[in-house]
Design brief:
This protein has 205 residues and is α/β, with parallel strands linked by helices. The protein folds into 2 domains: 2-13 and 70-204, HAD superfamily/HAD-like (Rossmann fold, 3-Layer(aba) Sandwich), CATH 3.40.50; 16-64, Alpha-Beta Complex (thrh gene product, domain 2), CATH 3.90.1470. The protein is built from 9 helices and 7 strands; from the N terminus they run βααααβαββαβαβαβα. It has helices at residues 16-24, 39-53, 57-64, 73-83, 94-103, 132-142, 157-162, 173-178, 188-204; strands spanning 2-6, 85-93, 108-116, 122-126, 146-151, 165-169, 184-185. It has a 7-stranded mixed sheet with strand order 4-3-2-1-5-6-7, with helices on both faces. Helix 4 (73-83) packs parallel to helix 9. The longest helix has 17 residues, at 188-204. The protein is globular and about 55 Å long.
Length: 205
């Protein structure tokens, strides 16, 4: 049995915080796990900026409502699901994911949860599980799945290296250069061919 595990933002949809930063003009919110490898540091910074600017959860959700998958992403996800199982392993939040998952025809997603006051002020976040991407991949392998994992950021490295096969999809050049042994793909056609080759090799084992 095989399963493909993909990051969400930067792989299938635009980076949510970057899109929100563009709408608000707040440069600090453009920082992602591509820039800051410590997720807790990054999230505390984001929450502090939201509080300072008086921005609420609904302000972010309003931006997400207007977002669309990356060009070709919905077709790519459908092609993967036509051949094997697909799980999205993301550090996004349940309050963000729903409208984006609808546009991708509801693949399974494991993600986190924001904590907000009744007035919608974001006060914190709750991890589904610490280092959830890596541990999800390891759990799948422990029940005899062959796993291919791919993402674009520092927080995807542990799951990529824990999988039977892994790849970067459109990562920053700096991250790719630091990990030259991990294949890099920039187009869905070539990435799908890599996945199909993995599935074929898994069947031949």
């Amino acid at each position: 049995m095989n399963v493909v595990c993909l990051d969400l933002e930067g792989v299938l949809v635009p980076e949510i915080w970057i899109e929100f930063a563009k709408k608000t003009g707040i440069e600090e919110l453009k920082l992602t796990t591509r820039d800051i490898s410590d997720y807790d540091v990054l999230m505390k910074k984001r929450i502090a900026v939201l509080k300072e600017r008086g921005l609420k959860l609904k302000d972010i959700q309003d931006v997400i409502a207007g977002m669309r998958p990356l060009d070709g992403a919905a077709e790519f996800a459908a092609a993967v699901r036509n051949e094997t199982q697909l799980i999205i392993l993301s550090d996004t939040f349940t309050q963000f994911a729903a409208p984006l998952m609808k546009q991708l025809n509801f693949p399974t997603i494991f993600c986190n949860e924001l904590i907000a006051d009744p007035d919608g002020s974001v006060t914190g976040y709750r991890l589904r599980i610490k280092d959830g991407k890596r541990r999800s991949v390891e759990a799948l392998r422990s029940v005899n799945f062959s796993v291919l994992a791919a993402g674009d950021s520092y927080n995807d490295l542990s799951m990529i290296r824990s999988a039977d096969a892994g790849a970067f999809f459109r990562p920053p050049q700096s991250i790719a250069a630091e990990n030259p042994d991990i294949p890099v793909f920039t187009g869905y056609k070539e990435f799908l061919a890599f996945i199909r080759d993995f599935l074929l090799r898994s069947e031949q084992k």
